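Per reviewer request, we include the raw input and output of the structure prediction for the construct analysed in the revised manuscript.
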Amino acid sequence: MIKVAIIGGGPRGLWAAEELLELARQRSVDVDLHVYDDGFGVAYSLDQPEEWLVNVRSSIIRTQLGSFDGWLRARGVGTDFPPRRMVGEFLADSWAALKRYLPRGCSFTEHAMHVEDLEPDPESNGRWTVHGEHFDEVLLATGHAAHGPGALTHHDVPENVRLISSPYPASNLDDIGPHDRVLVRGAALTFIDITRVCQPAVFIPITRTGQLMSSKPDTSGIDLSDILDAGAQKISCVKDLSELQAVLHDVSYQVQQRAGIENDAWGLGVAWRDMYPSIVERASYGGRDSLNGFAELAREMERVAFGPPPESAMHLQTLIEQGTVDISHLDRGNEPLTDLVKELDITVVIDAVISPPGVIPGTIIGRLVEQGHAHIRPGTRGLDVSRDGSVIGQKHLAAVGRMTEDVVLGNDTLSRTLHDVIPRWAQRVINSACSATHHAHGIPPLTARIESWAEELVSDPSTCRGLLEKFGSPVNVLHAGSLPNNIDELVNAGKKMGVDTRIFFARKANKALTFVDTVRDAGHGGA
């Protein structure tokens, strides 16, 4: 049996547990899994206000329980940006399902506690001890640090002014009343959350950039796939930042022309958001070394690409028009806070600047770096890790998420498509367990994938009856529309493993010329 600790019970901790136990099921490996979670995570807490919406489309969220969209439909919810509380409920249901259907020979233990430190196990080769328990493998998935360098303290504001160091949980804002004048440090998504749950006399946001986030660019009803696919291919080949910017501006121009919208911010937002997987691939694991100035570009593009949901953006605009949000001081984020508080007659200051990404002093990751067990990659803020999350210099310690930012771009908490770090980690752990025990295994049965055209056909009895009347029974219906995508999927899987893959369709065994033609048109062959 292999003993594994996952520190962090958020979305990434869940994904890691699911991947690990599913591989354990397939390969008949006994896993003793321990998950440590202190319950301090507030992003998806179940008691937060309905007005706090998830900032990604619900369609990207899924776990082994299924799709979040399907879970929402079963509850009569049809919005693309539901309350974050509902994401928390979905994640809780996913954890419950994972524990309910454990593979034979595996165990699961939850620890409701905070882990301050890891200690090397002196009696093993690179293994670790957590709260006195010895583990063969440890994965750190701790998410955002609670506090970061530069966070406001009571020394930063006058004694007669209330400081709210974090708006989370929402109860921290309960004492704000209709006569308060509220200065908010930061004007991004956290600021928008604040404006949705309390009603002071005025909110005055200040930032270092002097800019609000743009609403998410809406491209519904516009087919931009050809432009974006071509742009994504170019991004993978850019040599430096200037070439990357040239691709972004070219794609922005083309999508504006196609959509009939003359707005550079909108066009760049679409280009960055919809080509983001290719940008992530180009800029991660050392790719940023040849993109000098990328961090500044990313900050600006994220402002126009990953802004608030439409409902939240419209609410903010209404408050601005009403004068409840005063943006006339937006660009004063670099001025001394005490002077601003006095000048603007402020009664409450809220720190809405979240902890930055990368290695933060005082965290478990920060202490590992201080002790020399881990390192920050030169020229970045991020923990140096390999593509399977393994901490450079360690055999049995891995980390995923925000602490690796700059080394790994795009640490989106809910997305499982931007990176394969967690599946790679789970594969390494299970492979190691199998190697240690000389464990034999077989290939698990695959679940059939039914294409949408087949589902539509079988749900249309009249069409099926017409086919039987015309051709008799049995009827074989051939549809080659999905074959090009399947070819690309297999070729790309081979490419990731360093294997040059070509597809040859054997017509002798399959009397279907449509498939032969499709394979040929995709640049492959037949036999």
